[in-house]
C-alpha cells in the first residue's frame, strides 16, 4: 500500500509525519534541528529518500542539511571532519555568495524608499530538480536564486535574475525581500518560474540564465503605477504538473490565473469572502481544482470571523466553495503561510496545510473533510508531502 | 613554532551542529590569536563556517560574543594575542550566544 510522508518546518525545528494511504493513523518524529527555524524542507522527486532542509537562526545564520535515508539521519554536506584531496576543508553547504561579477551587487529599494545593498539572510525555499537528485535550487532573502549541482555541497547564484535590471525597484515585503517560490516545468527543463515579495513573478526559458518579469494583469493598490513591470507582492504560485503553463497565484490581495505561462494574468477571486491570503495549490489529478486559505486582511493575518476555512474551486477559479468540515469554526486566529499547503499524489488526493498555531491538517478526500494530524507544534512555516510506494 | 592545546566552549546549537559533546580541544600554533583559533576551529569543523563569523568578511555574527578569562573580547581586535591562560588551556575560550528573542 502507498504511504505518505509529510515534512513540516516550524519556528523551532522540523517534524516528519507518516501514515499509510488511508491517512488516518500518523507517526510523528522530531523535532529535528530543535530550536532552529526550519523555513522549508522538500524531497527529491527522483530519490524520495533524499530530502533537503533549510534551517536558519538569528544567532548562527543559515545551514542547509540533507538526508539520504528519508529523514532518519541528517548531515550538512561537506560540513564534517573531512578534507578534499588537496587537504582543504570541503565546501560548506551554508555559503551563499552573490555573484558580484556577472551581476554586480547594486542596491534594491528599502522600506523608506532609499536604496539598500543586497545582503544574504536566509534560504526560504528549496526546490529539488525533477531529474537529478543532486541538483537543487534555493530561493533566498535578499532575493536571488541559487543552484547546487552537488547535493547542496556548494551553491552558485543564477545571476541573471538579480542582474535583470529592475533590481533597484525591488522592495521587501513585511517578511523581507525574499524569493519564496520556485516552480519547475516538467515538460520543459529550461523553464523556471519564481516569485519575490515584493518584486513579483519572473520566468526563465533558458534554465535560469535570463529572466523576464511576468506580472501583466496584476493590480496592486499600493503601487502608483498599476501597470508596473515589478513591485507586486506575489505571495505564492502553484501549477499542476499535469498542465504546465497554467498558473495560479495568491497575490497579497487577489487570486489570479494565467493560461499562457504567466504572460497575462486575470483575477479569479470570484465569490471568495476575502481574497487576501498566502497559500494556494492545485489538486494532483484535476488541474481545474484549486485551493486557497483566505485570510482576513493585510493587517489582520487570521481567518475571517475566527473560522478556519479552505476554499476550493473546481472551475479553475471564480466559483468557490468553503471546506469547513473538521476545521475550527469559532475562535480560530491562526495564519496559513505561503509554503504551508500541499497535495499528495494518491488516487484520493490528499490536501494538507499547517498553521501558525502549530496544527497540521489533512484532508484525505480532496478537501471534503479535515482532521488535525498534530495540534501543538511550534508555528508551522512550511508543509510538503511525499507520496511513497 | 610551538603548538598549543586550547579549550573552546561552544553554545548548545553549535555543539549540536559540529556533533561534539562538550568542550572542543584544539591544537593551535603560536602566536595564539582569536583569528587563528577560529581558523583552526572552522578547518576542523567546516560546518561552523559562517555560523560564528561571516564567510568572507570574517566579522563576528552580531548575536555572538567571545569571552576570554571573564572579559568580553567581542570588540577586541581578533589579531590580539590571547592571554596565556587561554593559550595554555587553563581557561576556555567561550563563544556565547546573546540572550535575545524567544
Key terms for this structure?
heterodimer, A: 389 residues, mainly beta, Methylamine Dehydrogenase, Chain H, four-stranded antiparallel sheet, 0% helix, globular, B: 102 residues, alpha+beta, Ubiquitin-like (UB roll), five-stranded mixed sheet, 3 helices, 5 strands
Could you characterize the architecture of this molecule?
The complex is a heterodimer of chains A (389) and B (102). By secondary structure, chain A is an all-beta fold. Chain A has one domain (33-336): YVTN repeat-like/Quinoprotein amine dehydrogenase (Methylamine Dehydrogenase, Chain H). Chain A is 0% helix and 39% strand. Chain A has no helices and 29 strands. Chain A has strands at 3-10, 13-20, 27-32, 37-43, 51-57, 61-67, 107-109, 115-117, 122-128, 136-141, 144-148, 156-157, 178-184, 192-197, 200-204, 212-213, 234-239, 247-251, 255-258, 266-267, 276-282, 290-295, 310-313, 321-323, 341-343, 351-354, 360-363, 371-374, 380-388. Chain A has a 4-stranded antiparallel beta sheet with strand order 3-2-1-29, with no helix packed on it. In chain A, strands 9-10-11-12 form a 4-stranded antiparallel beta sheet, with no helix packed on it. In chain A, strands 13-14-15-16 form a 4-stranded antiparallel beta sheet, with no helix packed on it. The N and C termini of chain A lie close together (7 Å). The relative contact order of chain A is 0.12. Chain B has one domain (3-97): Ubiquitin-like (UB roll), CATH 3.10.20.30. Helix content of chain B is 22%, strand content 25%. Chain B contains 3 helices and 5 strands; from the N terminus they run E-H-E-H-E-E-H-E. In chain B, strands 2-1-5-3-4 form a 5-stranded mixed beta sheet, with helices on one face. In chain B, a hairpin with a 2-residue loop joins strand 3 (64-68) and strand 4. The chains are: A mainly beta (389), B alpha+beta (102). At the A-B interface, strand 6 of A face helix 1 and helix 2 of B.
